[in-house]
């Protein structure tokens, strides 16, 4: 039987997701952002001191505070439901009934197994059933769900599910092609590989519609 620690390492090294939702505790927002920053600052100080770093050096003095603010205000800001973007939708008065594709949305996320960056591009599409969404809101939805400790498969699903709710249609698709620095910079250290994930809803499950979408984004990968 595999020991618990070995099992956890295996999950992390193989980038396995055990939950379709981000594992956030119920009391995650019982304290303020400023209180979180103070707590994380002390933890980062402890890590750096344990590693043998001299925090009296001018270059390192502000590092614990910078890292704490970055965690709370920036790269993990998408954990806070108060920061969820409002998905502004409008009636499709011009009766556009074809596929709308937003290509090359930049993805900056963080692998929840090693807390290293995930960097890539998301391609999102939908077919209106009477409602359209502001183009910038598609980018903001991607950004919101990316700014948290993530697994790429989950991120892809969350983007599609959020747009399906906002647009009132199942006809939404997302493909993400991203590099994981936990693969590129450690472990196997393969700097060339990237990971492609996809989620297809409604009409995008049809091979013809799916192929049209993939042709738009010029992705060679076969699914």
Automatic annotation (TrEMBL):
Coiled coil: none annotated. It comes from the Bacteria. GO terms for biological process: one-carbon metabolic process; tetrahydrobiopterin biosynthetic process; tetrahydrofolate biosynthetic process. The keyword Hydrolase applies. SUPFAM superfamilies: Tetrahydrobiopterin biosynthesis enzymes-like. Its EC number is 3.5.4.16. Keywords: GTP-binding, Hydrolase, Metal-binding, Nucleotide-binding, One-carbon metabolism, Zinc. It catalyses: GTP + H2O = 7,8-dihydroneopterin 3'-triphosphate + formate + H(+). Zn(2+) binds at residues 111, 114, 182. Pathway: Cofactor biosynthesis; 7,8-dihydroneopterin triphosphate biosynthesis; 7,8-dihydroneopterin triphosphate from GTP: step 1/1. GO terms for cellular component: cytoplasm. It holds the Pfam family GTP_cyclohydroI. NCBIfam families: folE, PRK09347.1-1, PRK09347.1-2, PRK09347.1-3. Belongs to the GTP cyclohydrolase I family. Homopolymer. This is GTP cyclohydrolase 1. It comes from Flavobacterium yafengii.
